[in-house]
Amino acid sequence: MGSLLKKLGEAELEIMQVIWDSEGPVTSNYVLKELKGRRKWQLSTLMTSLSRLAEKGFVSCDRSGGSNRYTALIPEDEYKAGASRHFLETLYQNSIQNMIATLYHRKEMKQSDIEELREFLDQLEEKR
């Protein structure tokens, strides 16, 4: 993950997921409602996290209306690609093969996962 892209904490990632999944700018109350099943948060806790996300450059806050509206500044796929790269570099010496071998040997992968992966790789080959 380039030094440009900062890492998100678990709670911040959940907030970003809500913002990414929404079609447009969202209010803090909307985010709070969407997180209801996952987090027991007060609005003040959420507001602190949203401020932190704005400081990190992940969201912009539009204060022009009656309530603050938050919009994602970093696309979901861009963040996930960077986070995946960082994860691979850190844990698996930048090798997807090492990651899959570890999952396979630890019995974290089922036969259906292997077949799904093989099918996916075949489709990628056909597109070349």
Textual characterization of the structure:
The model has no long low-confidence stretch (mean pLDDT 89). The chain is mostly helical and 128 residues long. The chain has helices at 10-21, 28-35, 43-55, 76-92, 96-105, 111-127, and strands at residues 59-62, 69-72. It has 2 domains: 10-72, Winged helix-like DNA-binding domain superfamily/Winged helix DNA-binding domain (Arc Repressor Mutant, subunit A), CATH 1.10.10.10; 76-127. Helix 2 packs across helix 3. A hairpin with a 6-residue loop joins strand 1 (59-62) and strand 2 (69-72). The chain has a two-stranded antiparallel sheet. The chain starts with 9 loop residues before the first helix and ends with a helix. It is elongated.
CATH topology of the largest domain: Arc Repressor Mutant, subunit A
**Number of extended strands:** 2
Structural class: mainly alpha
CATH H-tier superfamily of the largest domain: Winged helix-like DNA-binding domain superfamily/Winged helix DNA-binding domain
Number of helices: 6
Q: In angstroms, what is the radius of gyration?
A: 19 Å
User: How helical, in percent, are the residues?
Assistant: 55-70%
Q: Major sheet, described briefly?
A: 2 strands, antiparallel
Mean pLDDT: 89
Protein traits:
mainly alpha, Arc Repressor Mutant, subunit A, two-stranded antiparallel ribbon, about 60% helix
Summarize the structure.
The protein is mainly α and 128 residues long. It is 60% helix and 6% strand. It has helices spanning 10-21, 28-35, 43-55, 76-92, 96-105, 111-127, and strands at 59-62, 69-72.
